[in-house]
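Supplementary Methods. Inverse-folding protocol.

Structures were first reduced to a discrete structure-token string of length 153. This string, shown here, constituted the complete conditioning input.
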């Protein structure tokens, strides 16, 4: 958790907090790299909350590097997502409402390596064989990402 969020949480406890976030879907050879979240066991994108002064793209690049060891090249903007399905209560009881900026990354360097603090592993999934146990936050942006990738075939 970044310092800003920690400071606000110390004042408001578990009450709902509006957060801006950024997420990245990694694609190569018809497969997407997803991470299994340590906190709830669901499969998710690579991303997190923006830090003060950071752009969504900068946050996406930083989070991707922190969580996978991959350095993003060009990012394709998928869009900004919010709505009723972006309310979340995390396992520690913190409530959040996320406004998320999502990206597709097909140009990257490095070897994927899971961050053991946040994930229990990384796995490549074929576009037509994605896991059922997805974090609800990524369902809409992932669907749009897959549609974009399939439209290129």
């Amino acid at each position: 958790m970044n310092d800003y969020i920690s400071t606000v949480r110390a004042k408001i406890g578990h009450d709902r907090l509006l957060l801006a976030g950024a997420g990245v879907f990694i694609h190569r050879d018809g497969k997407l790299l997803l991470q299994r979240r340590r906190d709830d066991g669901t499969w998710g994108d690579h991303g997190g909350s923006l830090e003060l002064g950071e752009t969504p793209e900068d946050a996406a690049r930083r989070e991707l590097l922190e969580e996978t060891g991959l350095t993003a090249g060009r990012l394709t903007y998928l869009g900004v997502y919010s709505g009723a399905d972006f309310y979340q209560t995390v396992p520690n009881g913190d409530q959040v409402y996320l406004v998320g900026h999502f990206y597709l990354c097909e140009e990257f360097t490095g070897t994927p390596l899971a961050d053991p603090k946040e994930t229990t592993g990384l796995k490549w999934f074929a576009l037509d064989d994605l896991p059922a146990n997805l974090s609800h936050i990524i369902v809409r942006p992932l669907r749009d990402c897959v549609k974009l990738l399939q439209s290129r075939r």
